[in-house]
Amino acid sequence: MKFTTASVVAIAALVSTGCHAFTPSAQTSARRAVHLSMSTTEAAPTEPKKNPTKKEKRLQYMKEDTFHRRGFKAVREDVENAMDEQFKSELVDELRTNDFVVQKDGVKVHLAKDYGFCWGVERSIALAYEAVEHFPGKTVHITNELIHNPEVNDKLHDMDVQFIEKLGEGEKDFSKVKDGDVVILPAFGASFEEMTMMNDKNVDVVDTTCPWVSKVWNTVDQHQRKGLTSVIHGKYAHEETVATVSFCDDYICVKDMKEAEMVSDYIINGGDKAAFLEYFKNAISEGFDPDTMLDKVGLANQTTMYKKETRAIGQLMQKSMMKKFGPVDAKDHYAEFDTICDATQERQDAIHELVENVDELGLDFILVVGGWDSSNTAHLLEIPQKAGVRSFHIDKSECIGADNTITHRNMAGEIVTEKFILDIEDADKELVMGVTSGASTPDKSVQDSLSSIFLLKKMSTP
């Protein structure tokens, strides 16, 4: 095959810059020049491949021999035994096998029918523990808290796992990660930039990312491929959301229905662009333009958000597009994929059931046990609080004081202390309570908290 000077120049331009760097008309002209200048009827050269997407790069990283996400079988049995000893609870087992009810020391406890550790959290802990056992003598780091549970993270500290230091908003100090070290990625996942950094280093990476989080990443990848802006129902500073938006090109995060309504109003009516950008300045992609980037959107969510609110936000976005573009064309401007975690949904449904039967069961209050930084646990508290049911969110048994006080986190995120059990000295009155726990909470934490309540009631009754 022979090429003219013009065709060689055209090919060089295509190869060196990539067709996407040209305007559509320039791309067409360049390809036509190559085609017409060929002296034979052989096919034109194949166009340069497009740059891989972030998802494709992540999948490439996962194929490396130094990337581990299936655990280490040789140490698995020892890790399983250690986890049973650390996290299992005879009391919670008794509750589960006794129709979720137990009576002891003047206290009657109703356990929510779905509670505590989910499969993704158990998997994450097992992988992290196995990594420590599998790499003896190596320095093991973790890019964040493994899960939002103080006992689990304290255990990792005891195992000499080094937590990457946070320097400020979105900044971490990776300078202590050296060649030959091991880096654990937590259940929330790690950002694309962090994964790229670890891939470029001479380290072993142990990926404990929950599969439900990966599902959200796949969803926002579909948004980008379809030219959609991702509207993410989540807290922009939460580790999981930070990881998710790193796989987006264009995005905006809304933490609740109020912020979703602000976005909806701008979609339909426009508005003060500067004020809009100022309000969402920490929750949008670089160069975000609401005048153009809200014409076509796709919904995704932080997996631990309140499921009913996510669905309501989805309905709001759909109605906004119908109002702006009409019912026929709205489908071309809005896409929704179900990214609500099954475990989150099941635990929310279970506490809904407790709340709906408060009067029938005679509950004095509902106790929610889980890390104070745990988003899924915080949303469990919202359900009884919004229904006007007395309820408390504690992170460990020490929150229950011997002086009949309880230190708890309220819906506003404040840590407060108040009187706990009302009429505690009434020997004739049985205390009736409901209890549940977040998806990152060990059963042992629930047992310890209930044991404190049993002892408090027993010691306070004349």
Throw out a few tags for this protein:
462 residues, Cobalt-precorrin-4 Transmethylase, domain 1, 4 domains, globular, single chain, Rossmann fold, alpha/beta, five-stranded parallel β-sheet, disordered N terminus
Provide a short characterization of the protein structure.
This protein has 462 residues and is of the alpha/beta class. The protein has 18 helices and 18 strands.
What's the helix count? 18
C-alpha end-to-end distance: 102 Å
**Sequence stretches where pLDDT stays below 50 over 5 or more residues:** 1-42
Multimerization status = single chain
- Full CATH superfamily name of the largest domain: 4-hydroxy-3-methylbut-2-enyl diphosphate reductase, catalytic domain
The CATH architecture of the largest domain comes to 3-Layer(aba) Sandwich
Sheet with the most strands: spatial strand order:
1-9-8-4-5
CATH topology of the largest domain: Cobalt-precorrin-4 Transmethylase, domain 1
Helix content: 40-55%
Bulk shape: globular
CATH class value of the largest domain: Alpha Beta
Hey, roughly how much beta strand do the residues contain? 15-25%
How many β strands by DSSP?
18
Radius of gyration: 27 Å
Instruction: Give the domain tally.
Output: 4
* Main sheet specs: 5 strands, parallel
Q: What is the structural class?
A: alpha/beta
Averaging pLDDT over every residue, what do you get?
89
